[in-house]
Design a protein that fits this description.
Structural class: alpha+beta
Number of helices: 4
Strand content: 35-45%
Pfam families: Phage_Mu_Gp37
Protein name: DUF1834 domain-containing protein
Order of helices and strands: HEHEEEHHEEEE
Organism: Solidesulfovibrio carbinolicus
CATH class: Alpha Beta
Number of strands: 8
Largest sheet: 6 strands, mixed
Helix content: 10-25%
CATH superfamily: Phage tail protein-like
Distance between the termini: 46 Å
Shape: elongated
CATH architecture: 2-Layer Sandwich
Number of domains: 1
């Protein structure tokens, strides 16, 4: 379910046809590659599963659990003018504040057609706010909270087929390989009356 939710978030952001055309991807450690590498992709949006929390049983048999989950959407922008322009944007380039507003507009209260609780916006935190080789860069991480069902029955193997009948072959001696008598016993399912 985690991968399905992550892909649905990316699809929602991509289908919005945002005017600044951000790159949209699953986060794969791009910021670990170093700032110069990741800045080339700005403006950009990344989606990643952050963590889930302790689940609560949804039924007395405890075959369905409600699992709270947190996803993160990262936004990044650059601007040649100033560090403030990376956040606020200008006539030519989008700022991270606009990107944050767009992501919040697109995801808040949405279930993305999935069997999940609608997304609730969480904490936004700064990832990067600095200058790099004459251009300013800004990136933020936005948390999104939901709850998804974990169905244990879907993880179990199917039950073995029930025994319906038993055939018995009787051979007299000397055995010629052909049964001399045959019995076919039909088993009744539980609950059937004679």
């Amino acid at each position: 379910m985690i991968a399905v939710i992550e892909e649905a978030i990316k699809r929602r952001l991509a289908e919005a046809a945002l005017p600044y055309k951000p790159g949209i991807a699953t986060y794969g450690g791009e910021f670990d590659e170093g700032l110069p590498e990741v800045v080339r992709r700005f403006p950009a949006l990344w989606v990643v599963f952050a963590h889930d929390g302790p689940g609560k049983p949804a039924n007395t048999a405890k075959t369905v659990w409600h699992i709270p989950a947190t996803f993160v959407v990262m936004v990044g922008a650059k601007n040649l003018r100033s560090e403030a322009a990376t956040r606020q944007g200008d006539a030519k380039q989008v700022g991270t504040y606009r990107m944050i507003a767009d992501v919040r507009r697109l995801l808040t209260g949405q279930d993305l057609g999935l069997e999940i609780d609608p997304f609730v916006p969480g904490r936004a935190r700064t990832l990067v706010s600095s200058s790099l080789k004459g251009q300013a860069v800004s990136a933020y991480a936005l948390e999104w909270h939901t709850i998804y069902p974990l169905r244990l029955g879907e993880l179990e193997t199917p039950e073995p087929p029930l025994l319906e009948r038993v055939g018995l072959n009787y051979h007299l001696q000397p055995d010629d390989g052909v049964p001399d008598a045959v019995d076919l016993v039909t088993c009744k399912p539980k609950g059937d009356t004679p």
